[in-house]
Design brief:
With 256 residues, the protein is α/β, with parallel strands linked by helices. Helix content is 31%, strand content 22%.
């Protein structure tokens, strides 16, 4: 598996590739080919693991991954980027891709996520709830157009918490927003619970109660790309299978 990164619209030559073990793909192994999977940045760690699992199960498939905010990926797909599978952190951006006629079949919801407050290690500002964010310094939120940004705005509005714009720093994605807290650019932030769990060495997490939280919904779909459609469908099937869901759960994602 190799990580791919879209810098605008890139051209990717797709063909049958060998497995990570180096042996030639055998048609009897099932679907084969190289596929590019574009996924929300909050899926980075778990999809790297899932890609390894897919390649182990189907030696003829080579998975390349690219991660960004779902809104950015949807825009690239609308413009014709050569992507074979799209996994979004919300249904709105998936609907954009479906409405553009870029999908093969309907999208499937494969996971849910929640939000969590993150602080500098030791929680020096003593943040215990959403309301406490009004009294800290800079707060990191995702870009307003990104799903994690919209979810954060939703929970803040529902809690009647207002943050002055000059005390908010915006990250392009959930990963970038988390980094603002981890590297000291913000006193606290709101990110996905899965990202907070993965970054326990660099940030502290503060749980947002379910009654005050938002539910992030993750759909996935195979696209009308130039690559092997059978391989793309195999990736989607694995993500939505019991094995794929066990891997997702191990990273903190919830079943749909």
């Amino acid at each position: 598996m190799r990580d791919g990164l879209l810098g605008g619209l890139v051209t990717i030559v797709l063909g049958a590739c060998g497995s990570s073990s180096g042996r030639e793909a055998d048609p009897r192994d099932g679907p084969s080919g190289s596929i590019l999977v574009a996924a929300a940045s909050s899926l980075t760690d778990v999809f790297e693991q899932i890609a390894d699992e897919v390649e182990a199960r189907h030696p003829g498939i080579d998975v390349e991954l690219t991660f960004d905010a779902s809104s950015s990926l949807a825009s690239q797909i609308e413009l014709g980027a050569p992507i074979d599978v799209f996994a979004s952190a919300d249904e709105a951006n998936m609907a954009r891709v479906v409405d553009a006629g870029r999908t093969r079949g309907g999208a499937t919801v494969f996971a849910h996520n929640a939000l969590e407050i993150v602080t500098k290690p030791g929680n020096p500002e003593q943040v215990d709830a959403l309301a406490d964010l009004e009294d800290v310094g800079v707060v990191a939120l995702c870009a307003a157009e990104a799903p994690c940004g919209r979810y954060a705005e939703q929970v803040l509005a529902d809690a009647d918490v207002e943050l002055p714009s000059d005390r908010v720093t915006r990250g392009e994605s959930a990963k970038a927003t988390l980094g603002a807290v981890a590297y000291g650019d913000a006193a606290a932030g709101i990110v996905y619970a899965t990202d907070a769990k993965a970054a326990r060495a660099t940030v502290d997490g503060v749980t947002i109660p379910s009654a005050e939280n938002a539910v992030a919904t993750y759909p996935i779909v195979a696209l009308r790309g130039e690559g092997g459609t059978a391989a793309a469908r195999a990736f989607v099937r694995y993500v939505t299978s019991p094995a794929g869901r066990r891997t997702l759960a191990s990273f903190g994602f919830r079943e749909p």
